[in-house]
Design brief:
Length: about 350
């Protein structure tokens, strides 16, 4: 059976790695083609992930690069169409909620190919969020909807998509189980510098935070205060955020700003952190998998399950709320199992093999 995976951004590479591992366990049954749109093209956000996670080299690299939502998505549409026409897959596999996901869904649907969406059913219930539009469109155009949680299945039921939904568990949980010990055993400078429980870890990259000076300044002030009064704060700075900080003329001050890290390095830091502050959906989940308290620098989350027992606390960009959450972070937990049994990759391939197209 021929499947084509369309990816383009860092979180998608981690999900793709799980599918690749599942395909490798059933060699001969699957012909798996990888299309990289080039949405993330910086080596620190792209090629290093393929190398580290042992993902096969992409069969097609569309080299789209950055741009506004319309320009970027339009370029993807133009470049994806002839590739899919040549590949003629039985299934087009989409991941998450990026512009690569949206473009893949539109091209595949208009070209008449069967579509399966990994990480379906997530809803922030805020249409102003670009990722929300992408995931809704992908879900409604897909023939199979692979859900990470029961809540995701319920969201799809409310939209009349329940018959297409398959509860597989979360592919990122598979990845965390497979690679966490590898990340620890590799060691390296970060492992030598940052001992368990002695620092906080932060990531800030979403446009709603980086493109709004007032929101970004509130977050920065809170992070600076945490670093001075609670514990050191380690910050792998995303290229988009680095540019915004430079435009603002904001110095690192008391924060430990470092270059973007690989997936293994991120797992290492997440697992060792006293707590995490992030606006990333993937980091929220990884914090939950690793039972590390999380403060989410957004007003809502698609991962509502993580909010139970203060395992994850929503603060938005409010300096006061962020500091309050950090001061009470040790009251978080316990964590319950809601993301499957670590066999999402196998469940996805089984559904693709048995569901009529």
């Amino acid at each position: 059976m021929r499947i084509v995976s369309i990816v383009g951004a860092r979180p998608q590479f981690v999900k793709l790695a799980v599918v690749c591992r599942a395909v490798d366990r059933h060699a001969g049954h699957w012909r798996h083609t990888i299309i990289h749109t080039g949405q993330h093209y910086d080596p620190e956000l792209s090629s290093v992930f393929f190398e580290e996670l042992m993902i096969p080299r992409p069969d097609h690299d569309l080299d789209v690069g950055s741009g506004s939502h319309g320009v970027q998505t339009g370029e993807m549409l133009k470049r994806l169409e002839p590739v899919l026409a040549a590949e003629r897959p039985d299934w087009v596999l989409l991941y998450g909620d990026t512009n690569s996901t949206l473009a893949g869904a539109l091209v595949a649907a208009k070209s008449g190919f069967s579509i399966a969406h990994v990480e379906s059913g997530l809803r922030s219930h805020r249409r102003s969020m670009p990722e929300e539009i992408n995931r809704i469109v992908a879900d409604h155009l897909s023939d199979l909807l692979f859900c990470p949680t029961r809540l995701a299945v319920e969201n799809l039921r409310k939209e009349g998509l329940h018959e297409r939904a398959v509860m597989t568990g979360d592919v990122m949980y598979d990845a965390c189980l497979a690679f966490r010990q590898v990340a620890e055993s590799r060691g390296g400078p970060l492992a030598d510098s940052w001992r368990p429980g002695q620092f906080a870890l932060t990531t800030v990259h979403r446009a709603e935070n980086t493109d709004d000076p007032q929101r970004l300044r509130g977050i920065l002030n809170a992070l600076d205060c945490i670093a001075r009064t609670i514990c050191p704060v380690v910050w792998p700075v995303h290229p988009r955020t680095k540019k915004k900080l430079s435009e603002m003329g904001w110095p690192a001050q008391s924060l430990t700003a470092i270059q973007p890290v690989s997936y293994f390095e991120m797992l290492l830091l997440e697992g060792r952190a006293r707590f995490i502050l992030t606006d990333s959906g993937g980091v929220q989940k990884e914090a939950y998998f690793l039972k590390v308290p999380c403060i989410t620098l957004r007003d809502e989350t698609e991962w509502e399950e993580t909010l139970e027992n203060r395992c994850n606390i929503l603060t938005g960009s409010s300096e006061e709320k962020i500091l309050q959450a950090a001061e009470g972070i040790d009251k978080s937990g316990p964590w319950t199992a809601v993301y499957g049994d670590g066999n999402a990759g196998a469940a996805i391939l089984n559904a693709l093999a048995t569901r009529p197209r």
